[in-house]
Amino acid sequence: MEAHRNRELKWMSLLSTSQPSQARKSKKIRKLLLDGVPSSVRYLVWSHLTDGKARCVPGVYTQLCKRGRVPVSEEMEKDVNAERGWFGAQDQLKVLAEAGGGVVQLLQAYLNMVPDIQYTLGLPHIVGQLLLLAPEEDAFWIFISIMDTHIRPYFSSGSTQLEVDSALFARALEVNDAAVAKKLLVDMGISPSLICAPWFSSLYVGCLPPEYLVRTWDLFLYDGIPFLIRVGLAIIAFVRRQVLECTSEEAVLAILHHPPASNLPPTPENYLSFVQSIKLKDDDVRKQRIKMEAQVKRQTQQGMARMGAGTTGSISLPRA
């Protein structure tokens, strides 16, 4: 109890003295994140890491809510009411139920502001997770920051960002576990995006137990996309035996997207330590990401030029 209180006091002191815009550059903050974030201050820490308050414009959220429904409102309501499942995870459906109608209202406000976003099942689960911890308007601005800083391209029409990040995951898997990579990507011919899309576009909500999930977000909001790749590699390691024994794509994806709790390390801290131990150079991932984005953009432009000339071409993600 005393250790918990001390961590809480450290965080409150840091939040009051450090600049949110510099939070993701602070080694002290990262060390505190690894040590643990008390649930009592977690949403404040997430707001700090995303610099959510800097985006907040008083009155805007209320005005956006007044605009009401959007074309996908009915679909969102069905998702929140569990008419469709995400990963088949009943626990996550409870998360949405606990978050209440705020999920739909918040997403409607966001889509009224950013109408070009392509709605997917991952969005209400990210919002639901935020609403479990933060007041609705605070959750809205944290959500905007997460989208703008990290994952908005995943939901943008015509974007290849998810394919790029999935390819980076596949490359890292080949380095970390060649046998599993061969089984999944070569022998079974599973597209990396089929593996990664449910993970990345939901930030692992519905895949990991709640106490493991919040620790994932603690570090993701500091490290960014490379941490999502790390977590994916860790999940592969946790269910490696089952994956190698699977004989169908459906079975493989089911085990990857909803790994049994018995396969996970015994505590969230053990889990986080394992994720941290994964062989992956974050800076290299960031550099490769920029390079691949540029290559894909060129391929897209060349493909459009060929189509304009009366021929068709497909885009293949670069391997190096």
Automatic annotation (TrEMBL):
GO terms for molecular function: GTPase activator activity; small GTPase binding. SUPFAM superfamilies: Ypt/Rab-GAP domain of gyp1p. SMART domains: TBC. Pfam families: RabGAP-TBC (PF00566). Residues 36-224 form the Rab-GAP TBC domain. Residues 301-320 are annotated as: Disordered. This is RabGAP TBC. It comes from Ephemerocybe angulata.
